[in-house]
Amino acid sequence: MIASHAPFPITLLGFFLASVLSIEAHPFKRTILPNEIRAASPILSDYSPVLTDGTSSLPAPTGALKYITLGRGTQNYTCATAASTPVSVGAAAALFSVAQLLPAVSVSKGQAALNALPNTAIGDTITQIEQSGLPTIGQHYFTAAGVPTWNLFGDGVLYGSSVGDIPAPAGANAGPQGYGAVDWKALAGVAGSVGLTEVYRVETAGGKAPASCGGFGATIQVQYAAMYWFYD
Ligand SMILES: *[C@@H]1O[C@H](CO)[C@@H](O)[C@H](O)[C@H]1NC(C)=O
Fold it and tell me: Which amino acid residue places its CA nearest to atom 5 of ligand 1?
């Protein structure tokens, strides 16, 4: 008997993961059990993030790749007045490990799937992604002092300072609110970071601020998804 692992629900991400894994997604024909795709550890060094939008590039990482995660949450902005331009005040996102997907497919197929994940995951809620079988291994948030933070629970904490920022490529998913895809970024860990020295936010979908505040005058939460690659 196999214990109570939930099968992939019929979500965009569920279909996507099932197609990546070449496994039938239909619930009445076949369910995918998380233990089936956790059979082996991937060799992380076989994988690398795309660091260019075709015009400009992010600086290459210097450390060793430690975690590849899918982030899904909101980028937050405020408007001092209804007539001002939105200003970033932080973000909140769940970080899902994708490592267990990789041993099931070839490196080239796995790499392509990783790069495409945010485009699919933006169509699902955090709860739906949790139900798809990807484990949550951390949270992204801003400290009270406004420092972007990636907390991988027991596996490291990174307080980031930007070392590179390029626009998302033309044609990136603009997100459900249609404001556009937030920039790709490289951040280096500052004092207080533990076990992680760099993080890259790439393959963004959504998250960009609206061009103007219009009638908002308050906090704007913009849905987004991105891949976060962590180095030590
Ligand atoms: C950002 O929005 C999220 C909701 O997605 C909220 O939980 C979080 O507290 C907000 N953080 C900031 C810094 O505004």
Answer: 74
Among the atoms of ligand 1, which is closest to the Cα of residue 221? 2
Separation CA 57–CA 157 (nearest Å):
25
Mean pLDDT to the nearest integer, 162-177: 97
pLDDT tens, residue by residue, 51-99: 999 899 999 999 999 999 999 999 999 998 888 889 999 999 999 999 8
Is the confidence at residue 178, as pLDDT, over 90? yes
Residues 105-120 pLDDT 10s:
888 889 999 999 999 9
Nearest CA residue ID for atom 13, ligand 1: 90
pTM for the model: 0.88
When computed from its CA atoms, the radius of gyration of the chain, rounded to whole angstroms, is: 18
75: CA distance to ligand 1 center in Å? 8
